[in-house]
Design a protein that fits this description.
The chain has 13 helices and eight strands. By secondary structure, it is α/β, with parallel strands linked by helices. It has a single domain, classed as Alpha/Beta hydrolase fold, catalytic domain (Rossmann fold, 3-Layer(aba) Sandwich), CATH 3.40.50. α1 crosses α3 and α12 packs antiparallel against α13.
């Protein structure tokens, strides 16, 4: 509990001062070959309204992009958090944006893609507070671009899936900063629902960079450890090609269900990156995610059927 409180204090100071900056190694705003990772405007649905780099705090990397259909009004909003091992990534990456926007904007959704400070400037737990702040600001501003602040769905891939899972398990990371309740969460292949067993067994070096050596910090950054009450409906997509992804998702689901929460696990025979990029393409995978979204509220169901 003290760790969460301290992180929220850190976030408030950072938002006020714009103290967290962009570290070398990010490919945000890159030129040359890296720039080819950015969204191609010609691949967006005709008439898409794009509002880039909307600041939710003072830092250069504390922004989100808005993609809205023409004439949007009281539209549900998919709030997307990119991955990248907590140390790289970009809200404008093609795999993060293009297929999702192409699928959901014509159905009347708004899509918001979020950047947040990276390692080493912010730990994953601190990153979650930045994402929570972004959510609060996006909800406040949603009516100005046709979105419904009461119809947000959180979505994230990889490290971003970990962050939205952490916020879902401990909503105070967002609600203490003014965020409203959201309809549900879609986590795309997070294998970090429980950080502690990862750190206590053989693991990739990226986890050391992200979570360090303090067991208290592992617990504070573990969605399963921060889960203490009923949460909004949750869909955990997991790659069946990874040894730990679906097992971690099912363990999170099992605990959440003891509090009366709805948590669905959706295994997919896809590579980790493809789970992100392929979402929005025609097929059973996108249809299954649509079915979850449609179940969250009649307003979403009407747009998806």
């Amino acid at each position: 509990m003290n760790t969460i409180r301290n992180v929220l204090i850190f976030a408030c100071l950072a938002f006020a001062a714009g103290a967290v900056g962009q570290s070398p190694g990010h490919w945000r705003g890159a030129s040359g070959p890296q720039a080819r990772r950015s969204v191609d405007a010609t691949r967006l649905p005709p008439g898409t309204v794009v509002l880039p780099d909307q600041h939710y705090a003072a830092g250069e990397d504390q922004t989100f992009d808005v993609y809205a259909p023409p004439g949007a009004h009281a539209a549900p909003v998919i709030f997307m958090v990119h991955g990248g091992g907590w140390k790289r990534g970009d809200k404008a990456a093609r795999g993060v944006v293009e297929n999702k926007v192409s699928h959901w904007l014509p159905k009347g959704f708004v899509f918001v893609s979020v950047d947040y400070p990276m390692l080493p400037d912010a730990t994953p737990l601190q990153q979650a507070t930045f994402v929570g702040k972004a959510l609060a600001v996006a909800q406040r501003e949603a009516p100005s671009w046709g979105g419904d602040p009461h119809a947000f769905v959180l979505m994230g891939h990889s490290a971003g899936a970990h962050l939205v899972s952490l916020i879902s398990a401990e909503p105070r990371l967002a609600t203490s900063q003014g965020a409203l309740p959201w309809l549900g969460t879609v986590a795309l292949d997070s294998a970090a629902f429980n950080v502690t067993p990862i750190m206590q067994s053989r693991h990739l070096g990226l986890y050391d960079n992200a979570f360090g050596s303090d067991p208290a910090a592992w617990s504070a950054a573990s969605p399963i450890a921060q889960l203490h009450s009923q949460i909004a409906p949750f869909l955990a997509v997991c790659s069946s090609r990874r040894a730990d992804s679906c097992a971690q998702a099912r363990a999170f689901a099992d605990k959440a269900k003891t509090y009366g929460s709805r948590v669905d696990v959706l295994p997919q025979d896809l590579r980790h990156g493809v789970i992100n990029k392929a979402l929005g393409e025609p097929g059973d995978y996108t249809a299954a995610v649509d079915a979850f979204l449609a179940s969250l509220a009649p307003s979403l169901g009407a747009r998806l059927h």
